[in-house]
Design goal:
single chain; alpha/beta; eight-stranded parallel β-sheet; six-stranded mixed β-sheet; 18 helices; 31% helix
């Protein structure tokens, strides 16, 4: 007896990302799952009296895009509740935005948002500039993140509410001080910004309903770019509760894998570490899987808070032989990752320097030898790796969570060059990782990146140039991948890295009917036109969740 489809998609060029049948023209769907993929005639076998048939008139269908690294709720908060601006703005323009936003707020309201370019750090780093921020805010507390979201620029009111002064400097992170008056400049690196984030939370923060709206808005925006599955790279209890609530109400239009925050170097979450990890399972639902932890092993190179095998360029503060640091040594990292492996969870480890990456691989090598062979490990962002560690990465089956949005020519590579010199040109060795047999998985790191558009990331992977044309040149073009590989990186590879390869990431019978309809086949066209492909609709579990 033939099972009838609820929906048949036909009249399309279908790239399945399934090597058993790479190309097709129709998909039959029932109960949110794929019944068949093939020719129009093969799909028509499943047509019944109640089957809806949609002829796409020659449009292209890809699997729903998968984003292995974003902060969807943070992006939703920024979109709904904060002051949002891009990294192209200079100091005067940012101050103008702050002043205009302040005029719309109560006198005691906080001004939060971002993102300012990390290349502005030196210009912002003075008491005189902090006083300009004080004036622009009209006395309201201000907390603005940089483009890495690891560092903050705050004003005097925010410092006061956080208890930070020239006589009370946070022990964690780095609080920059103006040598002319000994006062904090308002630039807070890494964990030094947490007291300000906590002061903001004490002032009211967000309500549970606002957290829910923020998560929902983040997913809506992702759906608009064809994303149907993603991994949030560092969640709080509030984000977990929001995702659970959305899915229980049938309103979570994506597969979500959450990374439970082990050590909070930047967010200021109230509950982290064992207290959070032990509660993750409470929030599991049909489409929400709290299956990973997140460990910040280092910071970011522009702030010299990432560990490198060779030293940074000399500067007045750190001298000529500074390599950076990690948040954990071998034993502490091993303890956490063994704990994670014993619980059956995976781990996403933020390691942006090649020294931090080597430390992670050393620990994983020991765990693999101890027969933790199935534990999923990801290195975020896999951007700097010693040549000798690329083969190890592949052999140890550590997925490279990469974010092309933040490394092709632009503000962040410029900031990297200022502290690393020529080494900054050798970032994101994706070709070498693939050739070694490693798994490269695509992520946006949105809202660190300004957009989560996977087509932008795909074009950057292929051209090694900025798809938006904001900066000239290419970055290590020898590491380019093919367009077909780029599609795999943002579909099946990312799904596999986050443990969803059996559910989504390819258009294969039995998997969730998650797909994106495009106005053309981006993979088949010119590499410099991939980004200009338009999303016509996005489908999750057989339902249309976005129509362009």
């Amino acid at each position: 007896m033939v099972v009838h489809a609820d929906l048949i998609i036909t009249g399309a060029r279908v790239r399945t990302v399934d090597p058993a049948r790479p190309l097709a023209e129709a998909i039959a769907i029932r109960d949110g799952r794929i019944l068949a993929v093939g020719t129009a005639a093969e799909a028509a076998v499943f047509r019944g009296r109640g089957t809806e048939v949609r002829d796409l008139g020659g449009a292209t269908v890809y699997p729903g895009f998968v984003d292995v690294h974003n902060h969807h709720a943070t992006a939703g908060v920024t979109d709904l509740f904060e002051l949002s601006f891009g990294t192209a703005l200079g100091l005067d323009e940012i101050l103008d935005r702050v002043a205009a936003h302040a005029r719309s707020l109560p006198t005691d309201a906080w001004i939060t948002g971002g993102s300012w370019a990390s290349t502005l750090m030196d210009e912002l780093n003075s008491s005189a500039v902090r006083r300009r921020l004080d004036e622009a805010s009209g006395g309201r507390p201000v907390m603005l993140s940089d483009d890495s979201h690891h560092n903050r620029w705050v004003n005097a009111a925010a410092l006061r509410l956080a208890g930070i002064s020239k006589d009370a400097i946070p022990a964690e992170g780095v609080t920059l001080v103006d040598p002319r008056d000994g006062e904090p400049t308002g630039i807070l690196l890494e964990a030094a910004g947490i007291p300000v984030a906590q002061a903001h939370a004490r002032a009211g923060g967000l309500t549970p309903e606002q957290h829910r709206r923020a998560s929902q808005r983040g997913v809506e925006l992702l759906n608009g770019f064809g994303v149907t599955a993603f991994q949030d790279a560092a969640v709080s209890l509030e984000i977990l509760a929001a995702l659970q609530s959305l899915d229980q109400a049938g309103e979570l239009n994506a597969w979500v894998v959450s990374s439970l925050t082990v050590n909070d170097e930047i967010f200021g979450y109230d509950t982290v570490g064992e207290s959070l990890v032990s509660r993750g399972e409470e929030f599991r639902t049909a489409h929400h899987r709290p299956d990973f932890v997140k460990i910040f092993l280092d910071g970011v190179p522009p702030a010299r808070t990432a560990l490198f095998i060779d030293p940074y360029l000399p500067d007045d503060v750190h001298g000529a032989h500074f390599h950076g640091t990690t948040t954990m040594d071998f034993d502490e990292l091993y303890g956490w990752l063994r704990n994670v492996a014993e619980r059956g969870l995976g781990a996403k480890v933020h390691a942006t320097g090649d020294g931090s990456a080597r430390l992670l691989l050393d620990v994983v090598e020991r765990l693999r030898a101890e027969h933790f062979t199935e534990t999923a490990f990801q290195i975020a962002h896999g951007q700097f790796l010693a040549d000798s560690d690329i083969e190890r990465l592949a052999a140890l089956r550590v997925a490279a969570d990469i974010s092309p949005f933040i490394w092709y020519p632009g503000v962040i590579p410029q900031a990297l060059a200022e502290v690393l010199g020529d080494r900054a040109e050798h970032s994101q060795p994706n070709r070498s990782i693939i050739d070694a047999g490693g798994l490269v998985a695509g992520g946006s790191d949105w809202p660190v990146s300004e957009s989560p558009n996977p087509l932008e990331g795909m074009q950057g992977l292929v051209t090694r140039a900025d798809p938006l044309g904001r900066a000239p040149g290419t970055l290590w073009p020898e590491q380019a991948v093919t367009a077909e590989e780029a599609l795999e990186i943002f579909t099946i590879n990312a799904a596999t890295a986050m443990g969803l390869g059996d559910e989504t990431g390819s258009l294969t019978p039995g998997k969730s009917a998650d797909f994106v309809v495009l106005d053309r086949d981006a993979v088949a066209g010119p590499a410099n036109e991939i980004f200009h492909t338009r999303v016509l609709s996005t489908w999750f579990a057989g339902r249309e969740v976005y129509a362009g």
